[in-house]
Specification:
3 domains; 652 residues; DNA Methylase, Chain A, domain 2; disordered N terminus; two-stranded antiparallel ribbon; alpha/beta; globular; Rossmann fold
Length: 652
């Protein structure tokens, strides 16, 4: 009986290929001490350079983009040894492996930035989820202007803001996942904006589609730009042409899965020539002696059954459509487990998961997963850029990176803003206070939705279900009775409930009355259910997320409510898009819409009343037709006022 091949893992059926392990020497201008770093920074400053620091820098995608824009990255910090080695190889200055959850390291970074005269701080701090209790404590600190970012050591975004507070750079660029804007309360982002504005920065946030800036993949990032002293920032103009997958990687030679060149880390594949404009740009900086070769064009081995599956797949084939004998995963869970990229369109997002398996990234023409170099191309890393460590570390660094082309466009826009030094509009804090004061000035008796001044959440729920879009006369008749109701489990409320339901049915709202009746019966068996700030998880019959959110916003529960949700209903988007002159309702309401609203209500002590003020504006003055702009408290800062005779662009 033959011996088992030790290079095959049991149950895997494919020969393992390890390595190569890439080692990269430090950059010629790399600094090994803080003294060398300061001398290096002073020399660049004397030559007129704008200096940048990159925290949580990874391999250096953002750093590379900033340098292409004209900045000089002199300081970078990360806590991944392979990424630090990669960055140190490609950039001069000081690249260190420090843990920024450590308060001493935070202060050390800020001191170095101050001493060097760093102009721009960039980075993508990880943002962890928080418990409601944790959110409440953090928000309390923020709104009171307290600075104690180190009692929760995993909160690296707070370390990032502490560096800003201590170093006070002219500009801050923060990159993160768009999930920060999908959170219904947008807690972290609103806290960041609040703190930055307290420090005197004008802040802009946006969900950016990276393909609009020459990145050949579907990849969205949340970008925050803050400029000191209230300087205005204009987002870079998107490019007209889109780069597809084949325009990005079509010039790279064919290779089989698991192939490795001779020479280990120094080996290469033969390369012919670039064809498209994008490919030519990827070859920029490749030495003349290496024009005929491509490095890191290697990928994983392919199982025989996977190879057969890949050969059967087109760009639109789903995993569930493969023959049963070729499925190794549950199709009801992994319907898109395998994905062949479409050469005529954008790639799917390159993430760090590519380091674990490449099934989401099957080559558009060959029956294998992407190579390191192909993944780097799709992230817009040029061919001269190499990655330290084994292949898995290279894939991880690529997937975690900010696409350099995005960084370049952001860097150019920031430099232009710092040169122009135009004044930004009113900060979020000022807008929120104006809205809050206006709402309070209406004697706690809103004219649009009077239940914004309700005393219990049950009152809000009843009014929303029965009176949404009702005529003013109907509201005036029914709301005073609803306002006498307390909780569905209270006997007094039950008697009034029958009267309210009869009134609703008398005006033709039978279906709404039946919905409310069923909900009331359900809640009577669950006293206090409406006191939670996670009403959606209760799956209460007849209670939509929008109605639940309005109840949470209108009536906070003492000691339980950490922060209010950001609503994109009740007409608030109409007000936000007119105020910002940005048609966010034509984009993504759950991202762009929430961001637009958040930029008006902030995250401080005025946020809840400001949000109510937005709803009141939408239902009284900022109407869909013939808005009463002259009476609006935001008139002086509304960007749409005066465009037409009635003060509104018809498109909005």
């Amino acid at each position: 009986m033959p011996k088992a091949d030790p290079s095959r893992r049991a149950g895997y059926g494919v020969k393992l290929v390890r390595g190569p392990f890439v080692r990269l020497a430090p950059h010629a201008d790399s600094c090994s001490t803080e003294e060398q770093f300061l001398a290096h920074a002073r020399r660049l400053k004397s030559e007129g350079a704008h200096l940048a620091a990159d925290l949580f820098s990874g391999a250096g995608g953002l750093s590379l983009g900033l340098e292409e824009a004209g900045l000089r990255v002199v300081l970078s910090v990360d806590h991944d040894k392979e990424a630090v080695e990669t960055h140190r190889h490609h950039f001069g200055g000081l690249t260190v492996d420090w843990d920024l959850s450590d308060a001493e390291q935070v202060e050390r970074v800020a001191a170095l930035m101050r001493a060097a005269g760093v102009d721009v701080l960039a980075g993508g701090p990880p943002c962890q989820p928080f418990s409601k209790a944790g959110r409440y404590l953090i928000r309390d600190r923020v709104t009171k202007g307290l600075r104690d970012p180190h009692d929760e050591r995993r909160d690296l975004w707070r370390s990032y803001l502490e560096v800003v507070r201590l170093a006070r750079p002219a500009a801050v660029i923060m990159e993160n996942v768009p999930d920060m804007a999908l959170d219904r309360e947008m807690f972290i982002l609103r806290s960041m904006v609040e703190e930055l504005e307290q420090l005197g920065y004008a802040v802009e946030e946006s969900i950016v589609d990276t393909w609009r800036y020459g990145v050949p993949q579907f990849r969205q990032r949340l970008i925050l730009v803050a400029l000191r002293d209230g300087v205005h920032f204009d987002w870079p103009t998107p490019l007209e042409e889109q780069v597809n997958v084949w325009a990005a990687i079509g010039d790279l030679p064919e290779v089989r899965g698991g192939w490795r060149p001779e020479g280990g880390a120094s080996g290469w594949a033969d390369y012919d020539r670039p064809v498209t404009t994008f490919q030519h740009s990827m070859r920029t900086g490749v030495p003349q002696s290496e024009r005929d070769r491509i490095y890191d064009h290697i990928t994983r081995p392919v199982r025989e059954d996977d190879e057969r599956a890949f050969e059967m797949m087109g760009a639109k084939t789903r995993y569930s459509e493969l023959p049963e004998e070729l499925k190794r995963y549950r199709e009801d869970i992994f319907d898109d487990k395998y994905k062949r990229l479409d050469e005529n369109h954008l790639s799917r997002t390159i993430t760090a998961h590519i380091a674990k398996d490449g099934y989401w990234y099957i080559h558009p023409r060959q029956s294998r997963t992407l190579t390191i170099r192909e993944a780097a191309r799709l992230q817009t890393f040029p061919d001269r850029f190499r990655f330290a460590g084994p292949p898995s570390a290279s894939f991880r660094q690529i997937g975690n990176a900010v696409p350099p082309r995005l960084g370049e466009h952001l860097g150019r826009a920031v430099l232009a803003a710092l040169k122009t030094h135009a004044s930004a509009g009113p900060p979020t804090q000022a807008v929120a206070k104006t809205l809050s004061d206006w709402f309070i000035s209406r004697n706690s008796s809103p004219k649009g939705l009077p239940w914004l001044s309700a005393e219990t959440r049950w009152q809000v729920v009843c009014a929303e279900i029965l009176l949404d879009r009702a005529a003013p006369g109907t509201v005036a008749q029914v709301w005073p009775v609803i306002r006498l109701m307390d909780r569905p489990e209270n006997p007094e409320s039950t008697d009034l409930e029958d009267a309210v339901l009869d009134m609703a049915r008398s005006i033709g709202r039978d279906k709404r009355a039946n919905t409310l009746s069923e909900l009331a019966d359900h809640l009577r068996d669950r006293p206090g259910a409406l006191d939670t700030d996670d009403l959606v998880s209760l799956r209460l019959p007849g209670l939509s997320e929008a109605v639940g959110d309005l109840a949470i916003l209108s009536v906070p529960v003492a000691g339980k409510s950490a922060e209010e949700p950001v609503l994109t209903t009740k007409g608030v988007l109409r007000v936000a898009e007119r105020f910002h002159a940005d048609p966010v309702s034509q984009k993504n309401r759950l991202t762009d819409g929430r961001l637009a609203v958040a930029r008006m209500i902030g995250g401080g002590t005025n946020a809840r009343m400001a949000h109510k003020g937005l709803i009141e504006l939408a239902n009284t003055l900022c109407r869909p037709e013939k808005p009463l702009c002259i009476d609006c408290p935001l008139l002086s800062s509304c960007k749409r006022f005066g465009v037409e005779d009635d003060g509104m662009d018809p498109l909005f």
